[in-house]
Design brief:
Length: 334
């Protein structure tokens, strides 16, 4: 696998956690750098337990993987410590000294600022924390006593892993339509979510990346405010089995059918070389738990082919159920 960047396609919640946990187990990923912040929850089902991870990288399921939080990330210290305990990863997780810190006052500001309220932010305080970082007055990980034993130089660790041909994942959060630069501004998050920005936050240069894997879901969901083209009524979403609630905040997600034109634009900006498509079983129930391409129905295969045609990107990973191993892995087509 070499160095793979995993990036979300639309408004997040495409199932990056599931795809990354699969790759971790299948490819024995040596190092994973999580970027972004606590506003994103990545869902991982592993050994009968469901994890909604806001800080710990989704590759934790492979017990030899070194877990890192990049210098571009924002760390919520209590949530980080809670997840480190829950996932039992204390001895193998590191935080870059220069990652910035979200403090309780940032969350208070996020929840009380009327402008941020109107955008429907998650309330975790990421926007106000980033604001302080750009003002260059934010606290960094190296300033926090509770993080002392976790501090490391992430760019050094990850680049030497790439030098020695180890398998590396750079774990993006959210999706391109929530990007501060490329998304549906102002209804976006406070950072760029593109593949290039994921590399930047991790301290990895673009020439070092082998694969950019964009993660699509078979339908689109969005939480918070802002336009959602083709939005369905809640009743229709429930009828189609598309109604979801957010893993992090519990808010109701709005939903819409897959958008092939938007998928093309997203693939281009990410520079995607491969695509994953999750929740094929929701659109085509007869595909549930399938693990081979031949086991998919004709309609399901046609849907995948239409995505490939629209985006010019091969679909190499297909999700057919919630478990980490409910996957059709077609990477042999590369
Ligand atoms: P913030 O990132 O908390 O400032 O929220 C800004 C917008 O991004 C809101 O519409 C949030 O619902 C959305 N958002 C932030 N993180 C996620 C995520 O992980 N999944 C889906 N939407 C998100
Ligand atoms: Mg999520």
């Amino acid at each position: 696998m070499g160095c793979t960047v995993v990036a979300g396609a639309f408004w997040g919640d495409e199932g990056k956690g599931k795809v990354i946990s699969y790759l971790a187990l299948k490819d024995k990923v040596d190092v994973c750098v999580r970027t972004g912040s606590v506003n994103a929850a990545h869902t991982v089902h592993f050994e009968g337990k469901r994890y909604a991870l806001h800080m710990v990288p989704s590759t934790f399921v492979y017990d030899k993987c070194r877990l890192l939080i990049g210098s571009g990330a924002n760390v919520h210290v209590p949530q980080f410590l809670k997840e480190v305990k829950e996932a039992s990863v204390e001895g193998r997780i590191g935080v870059d000294r220069q990652a910035s810190i979200i403090e309780p006052r940032h969350s208070e500001a996020d929840k009380s600022d009327s402008h941020l309220r109107s955008l429907g932010t998650t309330g975790w305080g990421v926007g106000p924390a980033v604001q302080e970082r750009t003002k260059r007055s934010a606290k960094l990980a190296k300033d926090v006593a509770e993080l002392k034993n976790f501090l490391t130089d992430v760019s050094e660790e990850v680049n030497s892993a790439i030098d020695t041909r180890k398998n590396v994942i750079l774990e993006g959060t959210q999706g391109l339509m929530l990007s501060l630069y490329h998304g549906s501004y102002p209804y976006v998050t406070s950072r760029d979510t593109s593949a290039a920005a994921i590399c930047s936050e991790a301290g990895v240069g673009p020439s070092r990346v082998d694969t950019v894997l964009v993660v699509y879901k078979t339908f689109i969901t969005r939480v918070g405010a802002g336009d959602l083209p083709g939005e369905l009524s809640k009743k229709e979403a429930v009828r189609r089995g598309w109604f979801e609630t957010a893993a992090g905040t519990g808010r109701e997600r709005r939903s819409a059918p897959f958008d092939f034109n938007l998928a093309r634009r997203v693939a281009k900006i990410h520079g995607a070389t491969e695509a994953a498509v999750t929740k094929l079983d929701i659109l085509y129930p007869d595909c549930k738990n399938a693990t081979t391409y031949d086991a998919l129905s004709k309609e399901a295969r046609e849907f995948i082919a239409t995505i490939e045609k629209a985006t010019s990107v091969p679909v190499t990973i297909v999700g057919t159920g919630p478990g980490a191993l409910d996957i059709v892995d077609r990477r042999e087509i590369m």
